[in-house]
Amino acid sequence: MTPVAPLTLVVGGTGRVGARVVERLIERGGGGVRVMARDASSEGAKKLASMAGVQVIQGDATRAEDCARACEGTSAVIACFGAQRIARLSDVLAVDGSPEREAAHPRNVNYGAVETLARCAADAGCARFVRVTGMSVGYPAFDWIAVLLNVVLSMTIQWQLAGEIAIRKICREAKNGMKYVIVRPGNLSDDEECAKDETGNRRVLLGSGDAHVHAGKVSRNDVADVIVEALGRSQCENVTLSVAGSVTPSGGMRTELVWDPARGMHWQTVELEKTVSEGTSYLDDRMWRAVVPDSDELKPKPHRRYVAMFLALVAGISVLLANAAVSLARALFF
């Protein structure tokens, strides 16, 4: 294992994942940690600043000058921030991009700020750039989870994907050969660890590339472990990691929903990909043996199209229900 970077920048370090990352970096030793926080006077920022080896500076990831200043002298950058904005109809219908001009819009945070930070990291000569997104970023645009998240959270999955694409492009063009690590966790939990299985052992899954990993509940502690472990492992260069928990041993198998003309939609049991590992701890070296670099080209997906189709379907059903209600009222009272 390669040593942890002498100075690591964590953006989003006061968040529930970021704070755990900072703690683990300090526990591991070998270098200092710099945290860029939007409010350096917050309780979370003060708590981090009180830790030996942690420096907290004020800054906003949407501002290039703040990112450039924060990246100075660092060897690795960890970006574990994201936008949480409830959607408005204009997010889907607007063609002039007006809602996306808001500072807190996912376009400006999950994409714009990530692109800015990655570019500043490359300019500063950083060796690694780690970004935390979500497992739904790898889902097809028509997947119901991706559609619902886009509907509720202002097209957040579309912009998370755009951020990942930007990171890959910047790393390809970086003169110093900066490498990226994308961490896509499943359903995040504040539990100390993932639920235990029937044998009394907890199960965690780690997949790389485009491997299919069920988005089971995973502890933020485990996600922090993955981030710090990946930062220090030589095989984690230009990789996308899917992280999840499982309440039962898989036996090397998984189920997936498939379609064929004869049977229609049905569940099918298939083997786990060779790039998926199952174990009880991400600190176990065996969990990382199957990790391979990304070989696919990440491209934009038609998220907005399927969100529009979903909203049209909801509107159509609403009209039918309203008409049915009016007809029933007329039959009963007129």
Automatic annotation (TrEMBL):
Keyword field contains Metal-binding: no
Domain (NAD(P)-binding): residue spans on this chain: 12-231
Name of the protein in question: NAD(P)-binding domain-containing protein
Membrane-crossing residue ranges in chain numbering: 306-333
Keyword Membrane applies: yes
Keywords, sorted A to Z: Membrane, Transmembrane, Transmembrane helix
InterPro entries in the cross-refs: NAD(P)-bd_dom, NAD(P)-bd_dom_sf
